[in-house]
Amino acid sequence: MSFSPIEMWHSMGVPAKIVGLFLLIMGLACLTAFIERLIALRRSRAQSARFASEAADDLQAGVVEAVMATAEKYPRGHLARLVQSGLTVYASARSAGDEAGLSAAERARRQLERTLEVLSADLRRGLSVLASVGSVAPFVGLLGTVVGIISAFQGIASSGSGGLSSVAAGISEALVETALGLAVAIPAVLGFNYLSTKIANDERALATSAGELADAIEGWGEGSRPEARRERVA
Predict the structure, then answer these.
(1) How many whole angstroms separate alpha carbon 57 and alpha carbon 157?
(2) Which candidate in 77, 88, 132, 150 could, as Cys together with 47 as Cys, close a disulfide (CB 3.0–4.6 Å)?
(3) Phi-psi bin for 126: left (phi > 0), alpha (psi -120 to 50), beta?
(4) pTM, rounded to two decimals
(5) Is 63 exposed, middle or buried (0-12, 13-18, 19+ CB in 10 A)?
(6) What tens digit of pLDDT does each residue of 187-197 get?
């Protein structure tokens, strides 16, 4: 028997094939999650940068409606979603008045805190797949190793001798399953660490932006309405 991947696959027993297929599915799931997160993060950063550039002047002047209109153009930018959420509550609170004993600025600050939690969960979507595969794949590979060793002992029992030819197939199964488990787990852990670092940076940037927006809202003052402020700017 040649020890090419195809020959080893055909020589594997059904349990070993099931373990191998399971590891391959886990590897594909990790690759899909990693690529999806990379695309989502890059798209979010790009849209957030464009939104910040377009809305900077209006935000500094306190033109709430203009900033919200700009944010609507970038639905996949986490910064735009954060600002839109906070300003929506702020504008609604200003229109409703101080009915619950909370100022519009305080309501906006609380909404920003809640939105940060939602955005953080959205940023980390899919990381659980990488974390789970990174921790489980070596044990699945170990299961395949055990199955391969069992096949090796079955080969010895059926042949009645302990020669290399009787155990070679089972040992090759064990080694292949072990290698496959590590080959799936190592990239998953590396991908998880890489994305975690990038997401943590984005979360810090969003938290900083939320604090700056809350300070800006308080700086606008409670004495003038957004409509009046827009008229002054015009």
Answers:
(1) 81
(2) 77
(3) left
(4) 0.80
(5) buried
(6) 999 999 999 99
